[in-house]
Amino acid sequence: MTVQPGRRERKKTATRQKIADTALRLFLERGYDAVGIRDVAAEADVAVTTVFSHFTSKEALVFEQDADFAQRLAQAVTGRAPHEPLIPALRHEIHALVLHCTADSAAPIWRMIDASPALREYEESMRLRHAESLATALAADPGLSRTTTACRTIARFVIDAYSLAREAADPEAAVDEIFQMIEAAWQATGPSERA
Question: pLDDT tens digit string along 96-119?
């Protein structure tokens, strides 16, 4: 049985979402560089300190699903059935993430990101954090028995698969093609998993 969040937690989540939605709307309407944190706070009817209590930076407002992305990939590793192979589980999760970010409604957001050096730099640092988080989950799984270097390498490949597929003409086909290479690399790094 799942425990429902309390009133305080629901209110905090709603405030965070309101701030993120307001920021994204303003960024798309006026341009990312033309909108400041004070503008977002005023439009969302919260204090600037409230914005910073939910988001560490202006860039983080654009990538408000950052933590969810990392959690979903870690869950793809830790939440698999005992004999479920790793790479198909990761491919399935990357497929879902790519499908979400390539929806027509996401196109203006990615154009904004591509046009902003600050957002591109933030996205790159975010990808490195995600890769390290995924590598940690891989290394912690006793059934996988790979070196730290192998786990870090495969994690980078998985994160790069997301980025490359997002930019491809046929994102789903790109995920499948890239994951064939990831599967080969994973098999080359050690013994078969969960034998």
Answer: 989 888 888 888 998 899 999 999
Segment 8-63, tens digit of pLDDT = 888 988 999 999 999 999 999 999 999 999 999 999 999 999 999 999 999 999 98
3-state SS, one letter per residue, for the chain: CCCCCCHHHHHHHHHHHHHHHHHHHHHHHHCHHHCCHHHHHHHHCCCHHHHHHHCCCHHHHHCCCHHHHHHHHHHHHHCCCCCCCHHHHHHHHHHHHHHHHCCHHHHHHHHHHHHCHHHHHHHHHHHHHHHHHHHHHHHHCCCCCCCHHHHHHHHHHHHHHHHHHHHCCCHHHHHHHHHHHHHHHHHHCCCCCCC
Q: What is the pTM of this model?
A: 0.82
